[in-house]
Amino acid sequence: MINVAMLSKWHVHAVDYAREARENKHINIKVVWDENPERGEQWADELGVAFEPDLSRVLKDGTIDAVIVDTPTNLHKEVMILAAQHKKHIFSEKVLALSVDDCRDIFAAVKEHKVKLMLSLPRLTTNYYLYAQQVIDQGLLGQLTSIRCRCAHNGAVPSDEHPHGWLPEHFFNKEQCGGGALIDLGAHPIYLTNRLAGEAKAVTARLQKTLGHEVDDNAVVLVEYVSGALGIIETSFVSYGSPFKLELYGTEGCLLLEESKAYINCKKLGERQISVEDMPASLPMPLEQWVEYILFDKSPSITLEDMESLTLINQLSTLSNHNNAKMEVE
User: Do the Cβ atoms of 179 and 215 come closer than 8 Å?
Assistant: First the structure.
């Protein structure tokens, strides 16, 4: 049994991870800590566990094996390094950190103290990603020339019920979040495109503040990859009814995915559009992979490279938008 401390309910997915943890037979949620004590106490009551206002007491507790970190993003580095130093395994919501240097500092602490780190990049476990990777690996599209991936919703759009949109107001706090739509929802198309296209060499981005927040709510990023492929990454907090899309184009075919539907058209399959009915089985979700990593030392499918390259694209996108220029990967 893995005794877990839930560290903050700040992120909207904290509740989901608590639910997944409680449904996993190998996890026992033992305590809650939150940088907002009032919120933390309420959450601890809901979970039926203890609340501890002192993070150091949580991390010094020898009965705690691991932590699930859903603090504000700007606290990730501090909290994760402290957790690693106290030999607690770490699961967290994306992004890992606000800079590549911070990511590497976290990696160094994790390695030094021999703890298992997992970041929730759930779309890398899906059947549609696995199918897209299979199509590329089998050369069905010829040379990959471009990828377009879009993930968007209307979380910042005001309504009578939610005057600031249905996302929590702190999701627009630049200090805590480090950004807006791109760093949060845009993480999904970033890490998917990175995985499919490979190593990035340059980034050009436009981050808009459509509704006047201090962070972006609508963004487009163009990534140039070493492979020669172009990645077009789109995200938004101000798009109603926008479906998830993943499109791959190559010299000999294309693959189009929209929500649960997939179509392929390529020379090797007869130059006709085919509806894809059979896809690979999805992999275990990140939390489950983390548990298997801790208990059985089973290497997860989500890697440190995935985590770092996600932050890299976000960091260069912010610089590109600020400088109105293309940013090269150093």
Answer: yes
Is the pLDDT assigned to residue 202 strictly greater than 80?
yes
pTM over 0.85: yes
187-202 CB burial, b ≥16 within 10 A, e <16: bbbbbbbbbbbbebee
- Per-position b or e across 280-297, b if 16+ CB within 10 A of its CB: eeebeebbbbbbebbeee
Residues 6+ apart with CB under 8 A from 143: 228, 250, 251, 252
Question: Strand 144-152 vs strand 230-236: parallel, antiparallel, or unpaired?
Answer: parallel
Side-chain-side CA neighbours of 263 within 13 Å: the count stands at: 8
d(CA 278, CA 135): 13
Residue 239 phi/psi, 5° resolution?
Answer: -120, 115
User: Do residues 149 and 247 lie in contact, with contact meaning Cβ atoms separated by under 8 Å?
Assistant: yes
Sequence-separated (6 or more) residues with CB below 8 Å from residue 285: 20, 122, 125
Q: What mean pLDDT comes out for the span 249-277?
A: 92
